[in-house]
Amino acid sequence: MTTAAAQDLSFREMRWRDIGPTRAGRARALAGVASQPNTFYAGFDNGGLWRSTDFGANWVPLFDDQSTGSIGAIAVAPSNPSVIYVGTGAGIIRPDLAIGDGMYKSTDAGRTWQHLGLRDSQMIAAIAVDPGNADRLFVAVLGHPYGPNPERGVFRSTDGGRTFEKVLFKDDYTSANEVLLDSSNPNVLYATLWSQQQSFVEGQGFGNAGMGIFKSADGGTTWTQLGEGLPAVLQANVAIAPSNPNILYATIAPGQGPIGFYKSTDGGAHWFQPIRSPGAPSGLAQDMRPLARLGGGDLPTMTVDPKDPLVVYTASTVMWRTLDGGLTWSAVRGAPGGDDYQRIWINPNDTQIIFAVSDQGAVVSANRGRSWSNWYNQNTAAMYHVTTDNAFPYRVCSGQQDSGSACVQSRSDDGRITFHDWHPVNIQEYGMAAPDPANPDLVFGSQRTNVSRYDRRTGQTALVGPDMSGTLPGGGAMNRNVRTMPLHFSPVDGRTMYYASNVVWKSIDHGHSWSRISPDLTRAMWELPANAGKYASTVKPGPMGSITALSPSPRSPAILWAGTDDGNIQMTRDGGIVWTNVTPSSIKPWTRIFNIEAGHFDPLVAYAAANTLRLDEIKPHFYRTRDGGKAWTEINTGIAADAVANTIREDPRQPGLLFAGTDTQVWVSFDDGDHWQSLRHNLPAISVRDLQIKDDAKCRCADLIAGTHGRGFWILDNVTPLRQVAAAKAALAKNEPYLFKPGPAVRVRFGVNEPTPWPPELPAGESAPPGALIDYYLAKDASGPVQLEILDASGKVVRTYSSTEPI
Questions:
Q1: Comparing 195-204, 389-398, 751-760, which segment has the lowest mean pLDDT?
Q2: Is 767 in contact with 745 (CB distance < 8 Å)?
Q3: Is residue 261 situated within a structural domain?
Q4: For residue 726, with 0-12 CB atoms within 10 Å meaning exposed, 13-18 middle and 19 or more buried, which class applies?
């Protein structure tokens, strides 16, 4: 039962529940506590800040009530472990990043937080705190990932973050991606600068060599670039040997050639490679395995054993270790497949304790890497979409960044959603799942250049996508793609399947054959976005876009909407014979159309979420048309001015009821988008990439499902009260209580398989509450206990509940 005061129609008593999967996502930031060897902090790109106090056996989130869940850097003050600094914004440049809003501080080990500043930094990569003074710190700021801005470089604070002073800065295009303090002399600092900017075209970027490693010997007031022995540096990471701070190590991405591993024994004045690169006039070939990365700024980071300057770890595709200063290397963890490690911390008081974060989550070793905790206990999965099948209970599916895919049951008869209730379905990590409406055991998935089919009963997988090797009439490719490509079944016939590259493909036989039903729907020419800035001359305009959104109409099998990542919206009313460009005039080139929602009640109605993050524009852009795209209205009133639009959905039962997802929360509108209010409630501040409403006779439900890029799947059970707002307001206006018409009820018999009880210390998702959900509003605050009576058809009371008794 839920209730709320009459003056508040926010429905704040409605709760989201986390169903998992409990398989972690990418973490870039970490911090250990030397004096508390069992305590560790991990910061996830979109999943918030987490802490373990038992060597990684269990993790709890600490940052869920803040305004962002994108974490790039963490530092615990060595002189006072209750003081924690957090830098927000993903600390690494990747296509799926989410920005943050500056620096935070806790003085009570994470129980409460204060925002400090650097709000326009968007991405913070590193924090270094003076080991003897918790109020003195340095911050490496990446800045805006998609455009120039002045709030980047290295900043210093001497008053615990109340004020920050920029102490190392080159220009509005140059980021700081590392800052380190010499623990034996905190006036000696090292920092790295990196000239980089992500392109508005996915997977591309701008940058130039000439940056590198900088040193300060006066507490950050003046800096000198270190370069003797180094190539022209595009990007660098550096590490100090705590037991001998004259020894430094660096990984260098040069302007040309392979990544190199370098060493200095004189505080950075001179550098050399422990083993020379291939092709050098003398010496052996350098072992490149510890330096392997996937690109996008994912340069290997290093950590030196605090007690032995010759022992170095690299966080790379695999975690590597050298015992001889880089001459020879051996794999510690992740071989042969690779886990994509990001950073490593070693306890200076006990070097057997190693803490690492990776694209798979956070792990701890207490025996120098011989065994590790696991990352299946951090609900930080980065999902790209949400789709559901027609099983009972229904399953929620998506590709998961770095981990393939997952389909998770929406409820369980064991009381908790455990590992038994979810499984992968052979979809590429950023792909979209499309379960067959007629057979939930068949799951199709969008690969980057193909379509997969997975049979849950047999485990068989196959690629069944269209042949995109040819050219379009008149020339031009038809296989341009990005990481996540749309794939949908028609909601009208449940048989026709649509897939897209830069053209739309159609299959009516489960992928055995395909036909192309559109020309290239992207922009042939376009105006160069302003955020290209000084790199504008390096861009060659021309067709480069891909289709990123498809929406078959639930009202007409002939109507299909398509949106592109270069800012087009097109629609067909005749099944693809003729397409009409209906792009709103206010949409700029290279605005990414994240999703389109075809209207459930009127075939000429549609809604669109237009994302301008890659234009370096942080504003919400949601659109509505009621005439087939002839005219569009932007519908953002009530949504935070700095929100980024990801998804918009129309309730299939109640006209005018809309839901929207942004990079921090969920929103609801009761008047077709004219006004919005928050529906975040207990949802962490995370990137909501997709929403779905599951409501059909078979599921016996009316659920809103969120696919988050950092905290897995969440379900808001029974949204039927949201469909009855008008009636509730009318009753409350008369000073009368209002009982919402309940949604369908499900009786669950727990433990029918007589399973071994699920251990409470093991992670699990939250299952749906059994029975009926009863919601009501009171016209005024109750002066005493509230009693709810349930009557049968004859008016006889069959059950009574009281607010004084637990249910």
A1: 751-760
A2: no
A3: yes
A4: exposed
The predicted-structure confidence for 382-410, as pLDDT tens digits, reads as follows 999 999 999 999 999 999 998 999 999 99
Enclosing H/E stretch for 18: strand 16-20
Phi, psi of 726 (to 5 degrees): -60, -45
- CA atoms of 194 and 525, how far apart (whole Å): 31
CA distances from 25 to 42, 247, 337, 382 (A): 11, 34, 17, 6
Nearest in space to 50 (alpha carbons), one of 58, 61, 35? 61
At 366, list the tokens. Answer: 């207490």
What is the rounded distance in angstroms from the CA atom of residue 118 to the CA atom of residue 280?
A: 44
Residue 205: CB atoms within 10 A of its CB come to 17
Residue ranges with strand state E in 591-702: 592-598, 606-611, 622-625, 633-634, 645-650, 658-662, 666-669, 677-678, 688-694
Whole-number CA gyration radius for the chain: 27
H or E segment at 48? strand 48-52
Residue type, 291: L
On whether the CB atoms of residues 547 and 500 are closer than 8 A, the answer is yes
> What does each C-alpha distance from 732 to 8, 556, 726, 777, 800 come to in angstroms?
11, 39, 10, 8, 24
* pLDDT tens digits, one per residue of 606-644: 999 999 999 999 999 999 999 999 999 999 999 999 999
Q: Are 430 and 96 in contact, with CB atoms under 8 Å apart?
A: yes
CA separation for the pair 723, 653 (Å, rounded): 8
Query: Which residues make beta-bridge pairs with 16?
Result: 716
HEC per residue, 440-466: EEEEEEECCCCEEEEECCCCCEEECCC
Which residue's structure tokens are 């799942």?
433
Q: Residue 560 carries which side chain, given as an amino acid letter?
A: L
Residue 175 located in a structural domain: yes
Q: How many CB atoms lie within 10 A of CB 458?
A: 8
Cβ-contact 377, 763 below 8 angstroms: yes
The CATH number covering residue 243 comes to 2.130.10.10
In whole angstroms, what is the distance from residue 192 CA to residue 599 CA? 51
Confirm if 360 and 341 have CB atoms less than 8 A apart: no
**Dihedral, CA atoms, 668, 670, 673, 678, nearest 10 degrees?**
-20
The whole-angstrom separation of Cα 25 and Cα 94 is: 14
Residue at 62 is within a domain? yes
Considering its fold, how many domains does the chain have in total?
Answer: 1
pLDDT, tens digit (0-9, with 9 covering 90-100), for 664-692: 999 999 999 999 999 999 999 999 999 99
User: Whole-angstrom Cα distance, residue 213 to residue 592?
Assistant: 36
For 367-383, give the DSSP string. Answer: STTSS---STT----BB
Q: CA–CA separation, 432 vs 486, rounded Å? A: 6
C-alpha atoms less than 13 angstroms from C-alpha of 390 in its C-beta half-sphere: 13
Q: How far apart are the first and last CA of the chain?
A: 9
Q: Is residue 209 part of a domain?
A: yes
Cis peptide before 336 (omega within 30 of 0): yes
The domain of 120 spans 24-284
Do 578 and 625 contact (CB within 8 A), yes or no?
no
